Amino acid sequence: MSDDEGGRTNLRMPEDDEVFAEVTDMLGANRVRVRCADGEERTARIPGRMQKRIWIREGDVVLVEPWDWQDEKADVVWRYEKSEADQLRDEGHIQ
């Protein structure tokens, strides 16, 4: 179903310890700076399984899983397409 039809797609939502975040800066070495929905700025790591398959750019909306032993760091779990990010904004999940 395309966006032109006005249909809502089911999106991956955060699980227990995951939060929405927006990529603010590319740091290199498979790391990005993200601003999380809980107000924290974190350095997030892009795992190997995502590096070659999914391109992450500044401004992208992602799901991150903060590290429980070091709160200023996180792992990127999922990246939303632009249309999916717009849908999340429309539904009030993110600003």
UniProtKB/TrEMBL annotation:
Protein name per Swiss-Prot or TrEMBL: Translation initiation factor 1A
Annotated keywords: Initiation factor, Protein biosynthesis
Residues covered by the S1-like domain: 7-81
Organism: Halobacterium hubeiense
Chain's gene name: tif1A1
Annotated family: Belongs to the eIF-1A family.
Protein biosynthesis in keyword set: yes
Domain of life of the native organism: Archaea
Molecular function per GO: RNA binding; translation initiation factor activity
This protein's record includes keyword Protein biosynthesis: yes
Function: Seems to be required for maximal rate of protein biosynthesis. Enhances ribosome dissociation into subunits and stabilizes the binding of the initiator Met-tRNA(I) to 40 S ribosomal subunits.
Gene3D superfamilies: Nucleic acid-binding proteins (2.40.50.140)
Short name of any one Pfam family annotated for the protein: eIF-1a
